[in-house]
Each structure stands twice: as C-alpha cells, then as structure tokens.
Structure of Phosphate acyltransferase:
Amino acid sequence: MTPRIALDAMSGDHGVSVIIPAAINVLKEIEDVHLLLVGDEAVLEKAIGQQPPSILQRLSIVHASQVVAMDEIPSSTLRNKKDSSMRVAINLVKEGRADACVSAGNTGALMAMARYVLKTLPGIDRPAIIAALPTTQGYPVHVLDLGANVDSTPEHLFEFAVMGSVLTSAVGNLTNPRVGLLNIGQEEIKGNEKVKEAARLLSESNIINYIGFVEGDDIFKGTVDVVVCDGFVGNVSLKTTEGVAKMISHYVKQSFNKNLFTRLVGLIALPVLRKLREKIDPRRYNGASLLGLRGIVVKSHGSADVFSFGCAIKEAVVEVRKNVPAQISSQLAELLSERRHVG
Amino acid sequence: MTPRIALDAMSGDHGVSVIIPAAINVLKEIEDVHLLLVGDEAVLEKAIGQQPPSILQRLSIVHASQVVAMDEIPSSTLRNKKDSSMRVAINLVKEGRADACVSAGNTGALMAMARYVLKTLPGIDRPAIIAALPTTQGYPVHVLDLGANVDSTPEHLFEFAVMGSVLTSAVGNLTNPRVGLLNIGQEEIKGNEKVKEAARLLSESNIINYIGFVEGDDIFKGTVDVVVCDGFVGNVSLKTTEGVAKMISHYVKQSFNKNLFTRLVGLIALPVLRKLREKIDPRRYNGASLLGLRGIVVKSHGSADVFSFGCAIKEAVVEVRKNVPAQISSQLAELLSERRHVG
C-alpha cells in the first residue's frame, strides 16, 4: 500500500515557498508515496507550477480556506480554525484519506487539534512529542516528552517509555532499545519523587529494556536509545541543545572571520567543517512525532528549509510503513497482560 | 582585609595533585589572599614541597583525618565524616577563621554540610546552586538553581531570583541584571503552574529587573543575565550543555583526524580553534556558588584541572571582596519592606 501523507502546506515560518519544493523533492526521491497538499487551492496550484506527470499523478490538492497563526492560542484554534490547512490535514487522517500528516505550524495547536480529532490510543492518557538527536556514536537517540505535558505523573512517564520504545525500535530497526529516565544523578536516591516512582514502574516491566537513570550529558553519548522525561524538562533540554550548538557555530564563524589569515584558514578548513556539519546537522533530525494518537502526526520545525521539511515528510513515511500506532497498541496490550500476570 | 579561603584539599577526582598546584598558582597571581589547605597534614606538606617564603607565609595547613567519597550519601557524611577535609573547611568559615571555602567534592554532601553548619540566611528557605555559562555576546549568564532543589515552589523561585540577581550584580559589576524565568515558551499562557505563579510574584517586585519568560536557547544569547529555574530543570540544562559541547568537540577532532589532508588542515586551523576554545572554555566558568547560606561556599567541578580549580578559588575571592551573603540579606530586607509598603 502506497503511504498517503497529508501536508499542512500553509503553516510554518515559510509556508508554501518551502513546503511545495520539499514535497516535489520527496516525490522525486521516493517513488512509492502519495502527497496530499492542504491549503488555498489557487496558491498551491501556482506554487506547484509545471511538473512532469510522474510527479503530478502522486500529488493531490485539498482546499482549506484558513491558516493557523504561529502565536495563536491552541484552544481558540479548535473553535475558530475548523477550515485551516492544519485541521483539514488532520481530518484527512481521521477520515482514512491519508495515513499521516505533517505540519510545520504552531505545536500547541497541532497537538490540541490532533488530540481532539484523532483521540488517544486506548491505554494512553497523554500523547507526547518525541524527536531524534545526534550522538557521538553516529546513531541517533530519541527523547520524549518534548513539551506536550508539563506536569507528568510517574504513570505518564511509564507511558512515554512504552511509546518511545516502540517508535525507536520501529524507525531505527532496533530490537530492544535501551530506555533511560532523565534525572539529575545516576544514583537511586537522586531526583524527585516522580522519577523515583517511574523508575520503580519501569524496573518491574520485562517488556521495556530499562537501563536506569541517565543525566543530561548522557543524551549525546550513544549509551541510551530512548530518554524519557517530563515535557517541561525535555523542552528545556532540547532548546538548550539548540542554543549551545548555535553559540558554538557563532564563535566558529567569528574565529575564522577575524582577519585575512583566519579567513584563509577558514577557506582551507571549509570542506572539513562542512563534513562535520553534515554529521550533526539539525536539519537531518527534523520531524518530531506526536505519539499516542490514533494516527500519525509529524511536527516539523517552524523554520525548516526545503531539505529539512523533506526529512519530516520521510519520517512520516517510515512511521506509516512501520504502522507505529498499531505497534504501540499491541505493546500496551502486552504490558497489560504482563501486569495481570504479575498481579 | 585579606580574603582567607579554606580549600578542601583532598576531594574531587584528582585531590591534592590538582588542588595544591592550583593554590600555589593563585597565591603567585593574587598577592592579597591567604589560603588554608584542609586535609591530611603529611600528605599536604609533601604536596606543597619547597616554596618561596612569599608563598609559604600566605599558606596554612589545617589537619583533617577523613575524606568524603564522591558517591557517599549526603546524610551519612553528616554523621560519619565530621573530621573530613570538606567538613573542617566549612567549620573554618563558621568559626570565622576563613571567609569562604572551596571544594571539588561530592555536591550533595557539600550542600548538606554547609547548610547544617552555616545555616541559611534569614528569609531564605532553600539555598541554591548558581554558575556562569558563556553567551554569544562575550559576557556570561548566571543560571540557578542547578540541582540543590528538585521541587521548587513559586516562592523558592522568587528567592532564587533575588539571590541570583545579587550575585550577578556583585561579581559581574552590573547595576540592574536582567532576570528571566526559564519556561517552555515565552507567552504568558505557557508552562506549569509553578512558573506562572513565580512570574506573577516577580512582576510585582520593583527591586528585581524581571524581563519575563526565557527558553532554553535564550540562555546563550546574552539577552538575559540571570536565568531562574527549578534545580531539576537547571541541572538537566547544565548537563545537556556539557554533553552537546563534548559531542561537537568529539566530531571536530574526528573530522580533522580523518586522513593526512584533514590532519594538515587541522594543524593550520589549530591556532584559530585554540582561540575559539578559549572563548567558550568551560574551565573558565568553573566555580558554582552555594547561595543563601551564612557564609561563602564555592563548588568546583570534580574533574577540574589546575587552571580550572584556580578559577573556582578566584570566584571565592571575588565573593568575599563583594560580601555577597551580606548583600543578599540587605536585598531581602529591602524586598520585605517593599512588600509591607504594598500590603
């Protein structure tokens, strides 16, 4: 079955000017995919322009008259943006006309709409946001929750561990991903009551490969595959990562721009630095997934460029092929029977 | 008055082998300082070796028979390590024989002992840990709490803002440091109830220069001088910063080590990269302060080298000269009268 991905084509910092070229690139790169562009029909027609039939036959337009603004309050978008490109893209998943949707829009609104329209999977109380980050080992690490929840209970953290474990094994082809709980020390006595209780729940499960507490610097060491934390903590950690990387990049540019000599050195070092940048390029890691819903929703960074938005579309394609929501459901059912067995 | 700094000379990953050379370097660099080395007398005598009288006359040894291990449980060190180098160094501050102490030992034990021996300042419920981080603007940003507290109330966050504001203006010679609350969005509706209530408390004060919510990536932009957060969040953010910096450094080394060509390029780029490293060298930022106590306690990174431990000693010297605890007390008194005025 060809994955059908609905794209919220109007949202994000750059809208159609980034999303349409990204969509066309993905169609050129992957033969077995169909994209549904959601937004103002006239605008989309114009942005698509002249394309070969091999592209056009795998590209549909679905009209939506509104756009959700980046700073709009989620609850108000639920009431007032029922014909927005974001909402219609989610509706297509609900109606079974698309297998997943991708949006670069307002995260809060996307989560609110997806939750309202698609509903959560049975056994999931709180959906979570998960994304991949680079490690020194070359393979990525997945971190959740990145901001959907601000006061997670130990049970929520346990749910995140289940969902994160399923997604990571599906998209990374890992059989038994190592799951760590983010804490402020590795000793059992450290941390707050929530993480201690979540650690107890995770230790008791035979299904989750729980390896214990990890700290902020462990995220990037490649010693853990899934890092579980409350959304407040995860969001701060993600944004901190972005901030540090930008600061270092700023100083690298400044250092090589200082005078004629350093500019020459910079020119010589350019190919090496470019290769380096590729390895930890945040654009490669674009495409956070909203997990725990009855459908696949991928959130692109608002400022994504063409390459980067393409990565988010491909993330959605992989999740469709692996049928992540069904896998989460079956893992949850297994856990439930594990608990019954224990109880 | 010459600042007298007690050094816990036995703790940290490297003990005397780093701490004694660091102490001697500081005495050479700063004429107006007296250091009290606390630890096993015979070990310290040997480590000091031959030194000119100009050094020896500003160096005393205070014997302590025990050492706190890096993984010891804080509460047990309170009972069982009463003659440890850490405890005796803190006692010297309490007894008025030293104006500050510095330790590279177990953070939890240091906080527990310092709190037990020195007590908190009037009006301070929870001491906090603060440290400086680099920004793209060249000047540092101070972040607190970095792990002393795991479930801070809005009132605690308010206390942290007061203490952070005082320390930052004292050591950074700033008149009105910009204080931001770490959150997962800048809009007022974002975040958990704790930060929302803390924001309300801070907005009402005329003494704190509160600029609103900041996000993880704002820490490094130079747009805020003091970042206030719960200790769990702050610790994760600090460790994340370390982890990202190490990962990037790992990939930089790997890129330049790939083959003969890249190694040559690396050699040419070396002076530029070294200058760059200096700017964001974490060793320069070594020396976290335990704030809110009736005395000055500085925590060095456990793995600090000679240069880095020297920075922590100098942090203590500056805090003594600026009399940070007295300044916090007077700022708190002013706030109290401000509240009475309002009420």
About this structure: Chain B touches chain A through 58 residues (CB under 8 Å). Residues 61 and 339 of chain B are 47 Å apart (CA to CA).
